[in-house]
Prior knowledge:
Elements: E1 2-9, E2 15-22, E3 29-35, H1 40-54, H2 66-69
Antiparallel strand pairs: 1-2, 2-3
Amino acid sequence: MDPDLVAAVLAGGEKVCILQILDDHSRLDVGTYAASSENGEETWAALQQAFAGYGAPVRVLTDNGLAFSGKHRGGVVETASAS
């Protein structure tokens, strides 16, 4: 599995982090979840839901994102918007 996070703004202005979990071999989307921020607790909950639906993977591949690095920032990372 290969989880990835991206910041987004909903129509009502609420900032969320979208977590997409892909099967690294087939590229099947085994879960897409909206979280309040990029943090380990919500990422782990999303992974557990994916595991419940598709079974636990042999390995989970991650980058050094905040949810996986042990660093705490407490909110959605601001990104420049494309105009």
